[in-house]
Amino acid sequence: MSDLLNVGRITSVFGIKGWVKVHSQTEPPENIFNYQPWYLKTAHGVKPIELADWRAHGKGFVAQIVGIDDRNAAELLCPVDIAIEKDKLSALDDGEFYWHQLEGLRVISRFSNQSYDFGIVKKILPTGANDVLVVVGDEQSIDQSERLIPYVPDQFVSDIDLANGVMTVDWDPEF
Q1: Mean pLDDT, the chain, as a whole number?
Q2: Residue 2: per-residue pLDDT
């Protein structure tokens, strides 16, 4: 199913009654439970599941899956990625983007009145102060370098054109 987006991971079992530990990749983390159904990406394919219950536990979460009521059954689901259908995501305001929309965009720098093709956004790293774009060179870019560009709109990121798959940045090609 190509319209699925990873939003977390079942990491391990919790207790003896079939509960599992859940690591969320959503912001805020508890939003992962707003998206249903979940699709588990197992070694045997994609499996839709429903949650019976969930709660915060320590720095993460634990959840109980409908039909999973013992530790042995829960172990069969560990570790696996949790995905949702992309159309379940909330609409964003203009100028806001989900990370999956930015990954894969071609990055063009307009620096000192010249244009430089840096390659594509491979992934985005959360750093606390601001997110960082990991841009990797490809056959069309000026070189094969990996660049780390702060994702700071209106300072380093000038424009994002999803329709054409291009992000324009103001970044020195020497960095």
Answers
A1: 94
A2: 67
**SS3 sequence of 19-35:** EEEEEECCCCHHHHHHC
Q: Cβ(86)–Cβ(3) under 8 Å?
A: yes
The percentage of residues in the chain with a pLDDT greater than 90, rounded to a whole number, is: 82
Say what the pTM is: 0.76
Q: Which residues contact 73 (CB under 8 A, 6 or more apart)?
A: 18
Q: CA–CA separation, 150 vs 171, rounded Å?
A: 10
Type and span of the H or E element at 101: helix 99-102
The CATH architecture to which 4-87 belongs is: Beta Barrel (2.40)
Give the CATH H-level superfamily of domain 99-169.
PRC-barrel domain (2.30.30.240)
pLDDT over threshold 60, residue 1: no
Name every residue whose Cβ is closer than 8 Å to that of residue 75 and which is 6 or more positions away in sequence.
13
